[in-house]
Amino acid sequence: MKSTLEVSKAHSRATQPRRQGRMEKPRPAKLKRPRILGLVLAQLSVVGVAAVIGQLAAGQGAALSALLGGLVAWLPSSYFAWRTFRFQGARYTREIVKSFYRAEAGKFGLTVALFTLVFVTVPPSNPAFFFGAYVATLFANWLGPWLLQRPLHT
C-alpha cells in the first residue's frame, strides 16, 4: 500500500504539463510609455495663444503678462511630467509611487517660487491676462485623457 505522500507526488506529476525541451525565461512586457509630449506641447501652445491674444487686445504689457502667467503654469506641469514618467513596470512600483509624491511636491514648490519670482522681479502690468493665461494653461490639463489616448489600431 502506498503512503499518502507517494500518492500525492504521483498525482502532482500526472497533472503537471509536460515540458518540451528547455523552458524559456519569462520576458518583461513591452508597455508603451504614455505620450506626455502631446500634453506638454498643448499647454505650451495655450501659452503662445494667450500671449498673442494679449498683444492684439491690449499691447505688449498684456502679452508679457500672459506669457509670464502661462509659463508659471507650464514649467511646473512639465517638471511633473518629466519626474513622474521616468519609471515603468511592476518591478518599479515603489519608485513610481515615490516619483509621483516627489513630482507633486516639486511642482508645488516650483509654482510658489515662480509666482514669487514673477511678482518680485517683473510685476505683471495686466493681472487679468496674467491669471487668465495661468488658468487657461492649467485647463489644458483637462485635455490630458484625450491627448494621451492611444490610437485604436495599436
Task: Explain what the structure shows.
It is a single chain. It is built from six helices and no strands. By secondary structure, the chain is mainly alpha-helical. Helix 2 packs antiparallel against helix 5 (127-139). 18% of the residues are buried.
Number of helices: 6
Write down the overall geometry. Answer: elongated
* Rg result: 27 Å
Q: Structural class from helices and strands?
A: mainly alpha
**Number of DSSP E strands:** 0
Low-pLDDT parts are none
**Mean pLDDT across all amino acids:** 81
H-E order: HHHHHH
Major beta sheet, specifics?
none
The quaternary structure here is single chain
Please give the share of residues in helix: 55-70%
Strand content: under 5%
Terminus-to-terminus distance = 59 Å
